[in-house]
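Let us practice reading a record.
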Amino acid sequence: MVKAKKHLGQHFLTDKNIAQKIVDALSTEQQNILEIGPGMGVLTQLILANPDKKLIALDVDEESVAYLQQHYPENKDQFLLQDFLKADLTQLYPSPFAVIGNFPYNISSQILFKVLENRHHIPELVGMFQKEVAERIASNPGNKVYGILSVLSQAFYDTDYLFTVHEHVFSPAPKVKSAVIKMKRKPGTSLGCDETLFFKVVKAGFNQRRKTLRNSLKRIHPELTSEIPFLDKRPEQLSVVDFIILTKAIEKRISSCL
């Protein structure tokens, strides 16, 4: 069993069977891999065992990086003391890369937003999240947990909830269950609308999710006329495609007012 410790809200996985399932979930064509928060290396060792894979692992904990550099001296340059949220990812990996990790609970949403910002460079993600966050990411319209993460993730990635992970396979054991999510980039490079505006529409809608979109979207454009669809609905009622249609209509309305 791997010795583990806790930092930044992270609970380290100690079950090698679960670790193997996570690593195996990565598509075989993914050769470049970026691991976030490797800790004591339960995922790392399995990735390094495949000579066809190129790994870079980022951790903000000096002891974890030192531990991995000591135990894998031939790969020591691949373990970097660096914050994923602040890293220039295209500088780390000029070529596209997959993301993997047992993500610290308290920054997992921020990690996902960073992946979305770099979506053209990240074709795939396999990650461990708190179960409630994983359910939110994979949720369908009409569900009470369907929200910003659901729409933005599913707009750009095919998103699958793979399996639930129980508390006893971590050290220290968390008070909540975890789950593993796989996200694979959808074909194509564009939603067919202004993607910056799309992000704004989704966030504005769900930031006031109890209101109809007519009210919550006034901050984006104060004069939303009746030809714009879905304004009398609440955001959780809209699919990803609906949000794209809505964004196109708002984009057209904004252009007509210029």
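A brief commentary: Strands lie at 12-13, 32-36, 54-59, 79-81, 98-102, 124-130, 157-165, 170-171, 178-185.
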